[in-house]
Design a protein that fits this description.
By secondary structure, the chain is mainly beta. The chain is built from 1 helix and 5 strands; from the N terminus they run βββββα. The longest helix has 5 residues. Zinc ion binds next to loops.
């Protein structure tokens, strides 16, 4: 029932990564040639973001409290 997860996640292969991106999970660079994920909100495809795979997988990890 989570609207938050209404996104399309696509894997970007290393050969497809021709630019450097900023990962919103860690504010670090995703270098050209590095496999990663592109996350496209279904309702707002223009707001797509490029993430490191582990950053996306851990995005919901929260500290207790
Ligand atoms: Zn990251």
């Amino acid at each position: 029932m989570s609207v938050e997860d209404d996104v399309e996640v696509r894997a970007v292969q290393p050969y497809e990564a021709t630019k450097r991106y900023l990962c919103p999970g860690c504010n670090g660079d995703i270098n050209a040639g590095e496999g990663h994920l592109v996350v496209v909100p279904t309702a707002h495809p223009e707001d797509r973001r490029h993430w490191h795979k582990p950053c996306w997988q851990h995005r919901h990890r929260r500290r207790p409290g």
